[in-house]
Fold:
Amino acid sequence: MKRTDLSMEVCPIPLPPRSSVVPTASTSFQRLPASPVPSGERMGTSFTRKLQVVIVIDQKVQKNLKVREMALKDVQNVADTLNVNLTQIDFDRLDFGEANALDTFYNADVALVDVTVQQQQPSLCYHIGVRESMNQSYNILMTYIAPDSEYHIIDALKKTHAHLPMIVYMKFPESNTLQSYDRNMNISERKGEQENNTRT
Structure:
């Protein structure tokens, strides 16, 4: 199979380029005159609310489940530190089209989408495309690289989602912790480190 064919399987919907400044942890909005605001929230002509972040990460598929649970916990710790609201959405609810799940995902300021489970990638890609068609362009991909991960799958993801930030994470057994890297890392080099640590 050609690499281009694989890319289409990974993400059948082309995504538009990102174009805006990434939002900060506190986002300011103009107050609408018709919408009453509690006195405790009044700050002149505008008010500030917490950044709304959503994460879609599978917590059911057994393969590498413990690692994804660790990743979710780490993201929650970061969200708590930054004082932002983090909402976790189950993939099945999003894939089924549950109204509350769709509303939360499409309207979040930032979406973190874990694409570790290969079978879920086309559906997740579709929903990212819908967000970007709504000008919700702050989307970040996450993926776990296991010792048995296939290079061409990761390469296809990086190529197909070239305009999106991507966080790649690995687990090192000796410390039982996760290490994350950006999309520009040398995958073969990092996997070599991971395999060496696993043998020792």
In short: The first strand starts at residue 26 and ends at 30.
